[in-house]
Amino acid sequence: MPISCPEGPQRCAECAECVRQRLLHRPGIRSVVIHPNGSQARITLDYDTTLIALSELERDIRRNGGCFSPDWGHAVIPVEGMISSQSEQLIETVLRRIPGVMATASHASRLVRVEFDRRRCAVPEIIARLNELGYPVRPDSAKRFRSPGISAGVLEAHDGERGRRMIAVPRPSLVVRLLKWLAATPELALPLLGGLFLLLAFLIHSSNGSNWLRGAFLVFSYLCCSRYTGMDTLRSLRHMQFNIDVLMFIAAGGAISLGRHEEGALLLMLFGVGTAGENLAMDRARRAIHALAELAPETATVRDADGRERVVHVADLAIGDQVVIRPFDRMPADGEVISGASAVDQSPITGESMPVEKTVGLPLYAGTINGNGAMVMKVVRAAGETKLAKIIKLVEEAQTTKSPTQVLTDQVERFYVPLVFISTACLIVLPITLADGAWSVWFYRAMAFLTAASPCALAIGTPAAVLSGIARAARGGVLIKGGVHLENLGRVRAIAFDKTGTLTRGRAEVTNVTPIGSHSIEEILGLAAAVEQESTHPLAAAITAEAKARGCRVSVARDVQQTPGIGVTGVLSPGVYAGCSDPPDINVRALRVAVGRITPEHIARSPELKLAAERMEADGKTVVVVSVDLAPIGAIALADHPRERVREVLDELRRLGVRRTVMLTGDNARVAAAIAKQIGADEYFAELLPEDKVDRLRDLERRFGRTAMVGDGINDAPALATATVGIAMGGAGTDVALETADVALMADALEKLPEAIGLSRFSRRIILQNLCIALGVIAIMAPTAALGGATLGVAVVAHEGSTVLVVLNALRLLLYKPKPI
Ligand code: ADP
Ligand code: MG
To answer: Measuring CA to CA, which of 24, 232, 403, 453 is 20 to 30 A from 348?
Structure first.
């Protein structure tokens, strides 16, 4: 795929190498070759599409300074009709036959993720192929590809809910409800009906009734039971795919051909009921994500310039519209308060349990719930680009990636299924040819063996857990962008934290301003604020606020440049000098103002700076120097306090098995020591530039194994990309945090970290349990069946039972309750 670099050929070669190094570090990337060509470069990536989504790679390349040419597109398509994980392979194989398409299907989430070369094909072609295959795009989302808003089905669902609430209908009796439910779930109802026919056939048989009637009931039973599973199997066979479904039908056919008609029907029924049960259970996990989408209301009340109010569809909201928010309303869009105040429950997005006070100027997010105040908000983002829409998109994409365990089980299956076929064949042929065994006995045993040995539970156990884990995390305000990250997060041994804005509140306050030479405090602050007002760094906000509070006149600097980990510089034009006193010499020429960390040059130029800085730093304060044309004119000390309960959070992390907590900071060593002591971090590294943080992380990985990096994403993107798992905080507030990390904590609260790690560890435990259940049942039942110790019925019950059991086990993740901190 081609990428281009905005900075021209010279930089392109350098940055291409840098992109290559970063990409190589990601899990799932096998090789990266860059072919530079002027200011464009082509990049050939060999990567595992099941582990990483193209959009994630695109983000990676973009955050390393490159940009994608628009020839590659990607889409996540929700489909119907995927009733077993067997369909994954079928869809992937068939879609990959379209030139220029890479596809990953996920039965667990019923989503197909495609990445394609726009010059060679387009989404409609892919959708047409899916339709042809018998996996139509889910109608609720068909519109999504046309309108930018949240999927239409979601809106309909919302409508339905509202309708139910308004019309009070007497509750029907349990039987009626059960029948209605069954009618709405034919994939379960039909096999059950098939079971009823089977029972009738059995009764007729045992009372020596009409053979003709018995046969008819049996045929009905076969038809009902295999209506769904049979169609799926036929589809696989048509595309020459031999999988577990095919195995089951061979077993049933085998039983019937041996004259064990009832047993064959029983097998088909249990297979149908088991598959349906497994799907219904999976639906619970899928709905957990849909529930997120249902948060945003369908309509909004817009107040026009003339004060009149009208109700519009959220998709028709324009940026800048004024929307009336009444008490207890849900926010229809992302916006900013322009009048009124209220406490807003942001838990749907951030997972924070406490409502957040909102006043004029503060952001509001679609889907959050207003408290008892009334407000007017100005829309700042289009309906399709709200935080909520972005979260849903990221979560859906995450659910289509496979976790390392799943990749492993998939690989095992590839060898295992043919092995089962061969063993079954041996079981039929060998005893008969070598030991004169009876054909019917051994064929029957072989069929029971085949059923017991089918790895259905193995195939579904891991994806079900990953799906539930990611869904549960999203509901708690933690966005995990793929199964890989979910599994890695649960195995993290060391965690590195950025200091400013992560371990500390990132809301620094100016405590002292020490002038050097004859400059006044106002002068220093005024000059500093002129450049800092352009910076997003937490220290910048504090300095700008202090200058305003003291009434300094702050002018506008040009050519402002922020160097991560160092500081910010800018140029003030002649005549615009903004200090409160007006020294004539400064005001006649352009000034180069710099605010940032203390360097040896600063100290060489004014030795008194050293003493002043050391004194303040020993108290844990950050000291920055303001200089004009390289000459220091003053030092500003800022205090930024550790977040509340950081100590408890670190303790909880240790309890969860994290062996090392490390603080990384660009700040001075004295400040770092003071803060590390206050919060109880195991280790700290100070005076690091962003690239030094990368080296430290590599070192930690060598010493402890899997390492996570927690930052705010603003100036630690390289470190986040290097760590095994990059975790960004404050995803609701800044887009950078959402985009750069593998895991985003939507709330700006560190307490979510142990929760996320706890959940990941729990997910890993569930995955392991599921593997044990699946393999255990096979290990016990397959030999037993082969030796004639278990009938076909028992083998089917064990097989289907273990499949449903692993899915139910995975659903426990949805109920995960974190330990309160
Ligand atoms: P941390 O690693 O603690 O998050 P940073 O890497 O963001 O810190 O910054 C490191 C140091 O660089 C700060 O302590 C400060 O001295 C200086 N610095 C960076 N950006 C700015 C800025 N905008 N204004 C003043 N100082 C800055
Ligand atoms: Mg920082």
So the answer is: 403
